């Protein structure tokens, strides 16, 4: 019996699907082995976002499923805390991610290798399934078009965005559902696979929905009978889409809410009704090898497709069949897609009202699908075209290649060699279709080999332009981070946050599963970047990094531990050691903390912060009335205002501005006022430098603020001759620690200009009065929220409010998802400093529990439950009616 089942799987009908699966998978596996990707060498597939974001989220995925399921809803590894349903919906709902459960720690790069090639294979299989079930193609021509689809230009260019790749396997199944809707009237296949798409990745699912609407226009024309059937198709299409939404509502509704707090706040409000570039430039993307690093942040859409498929697409409009209304509808769909690639309003529509940050025209996969699918419908099994059709194709090819050749200087990503190779591939493909064929089977196999060569050439010539993170660079850093964090966690099972002076990615806390303060994702609540920017930390849309902490912010945000890279010994002082532990923070004030030899290792020194306030503490209720500007003004003064208000102490005297003892200008015109001045070089051909000197009269901590203009792009910075270690980009003023415990020692802060002039934006020296800081910290530590139980979404603790007019102040980011109970009774929370959760309390001892419930998840789950039960009930009733009949 088992043998018979195996034979059924590998029978005459299924072998084209197996080739469709294995051919693209093996081609890409061979290429990755050639590039020495782990586990086959010293490199890895990690590059750009895959290396800086996704790999850490995959590690978090493992941790959630294996150790902390509550982290599906909320995580304190997402900066200082954030909702996670939106993160899962965008990054982690792919069933392929289950493979990562088999690859812990540094071996996760092997899991990424396997998942990547499997997605190529599944894309080919799905397209082959569509061709087979619709009887569009059969035999060897199935893998011909499936391979062209699976290795399309979008796939190659976006394999580093592997969270999107599932779309290529699901889209053909959604379209198969639409085809069945037209031919059988059944909605279930369309609704089911569209629901799968929306759950797998709502962002790509949104684009699939738009394309499904376009495809429906084509399908309605293709299967036109009369107006009665037309309106039936309209109703069933609408019902299928609605049912798909209902089946995925349990995830979509909380995700929509999460987006309203994050990504949706950055939507473009002003639309320019214009072309984004000269449309002819799109023709250059029909040349092989036209993807490189410069095309990632901006460029034209990546839609290179095997030339046999393109010629088949042209043939669709040259053949007698289908009828002209079908051809017109196909032209309309094609025209809308092409216009979407260069007309700003349509481009914004496909991207849900936001211009992509890198990776433009992310929807070009639907265009690739469309070209291959239409081409597959046009080419018969004999692969033969008429001579007049060949002449038309030759004219079109001449126009495409001639235009590109005459404008090579305007498309730098096209080389003459690649253009020649492409002309050769297109020419061979055209000849193959023109040659009379006595044995079609042989020519079908030749066509498959030609497509394999065509798409392999594109993959190799494009991906050879991309550099990757070495396995050792990723593995060494990850091992050290994990080792250090585990030591801390084994010594303390309570709730606390950990800071560090080095960074591989902004999602290091998710990689090592600890509570940190860094994060980077597309679904990041805007209140955190706003707050971090206001207190002197580098921030951006969807990103924060806690590299510029002070004693005040460390205390406030409960940074109980700090990891600092040890100064390498003479033997270790080499480029490799420095590269895999990149220092991004200068914190001489860590000497105020207690160094822990037990928690340190050969690479990292761990400090314990005696001034950390815990996740919650009793604070003056004046904080509920404090209004703080978001990002304008001075971050150091803002820190003082917040901290002293919490402690109910004077908001002056903690921090004071200081003057420099001496300023030396070298090849720079002198200015009398420093802050806000613009300094200019004297001799433009020579280096311009400024040295600011001061000698601390106390052992207090000193900080210099640098405005966004004072970035590494405009100048280099030095402390006593050593280059300042600092995260390179920031859009608001940051605070840099330049001295601590340096009484009587001369400190020199040097600026070396990189341009002819430099704006000393918000450039000020400050002194933190350590004695006053300790008094405020001690007062705030008097009534801590003693946490007795904690998980990612529920925290319980006791607190003793000793004075009137106090609140439980927490550093949990405010969200409507947080619900509080005090002594078992539900109470309302307050949003303070426009950022954090606070709970009003009366004097006395209280037990306070904070529980996170994703907004609208219950509502969405009810909708999904009703839809699922209703669907199952409908099928049961329908089956019984058939049996009774």
TrEMBL record:
Coiled coil: none annotated. InterPro entries: Uncharacterised_YfhO (IPR018580). The keyword Amino-acid biosynthesis does not apply. The chain crosses the membrane at residues 15-34, 71-91, 138-156, 202-218, 230-253, 301-318, 330-346, 358-375, 387-406, 412-434, 441-460, 856-877. It comes from the Bacteria. The keyword Ribosomal protein does not apply. Keywords: Membrane, Transmembrane, Transmembrane helix. Pfam families: YfhO. PANTHER family: INTEGRAL MEMBRANE PROTEIN, INTEGRAL MEMBRANE PROTEIN-RELATED. This is Integral membrane protein.
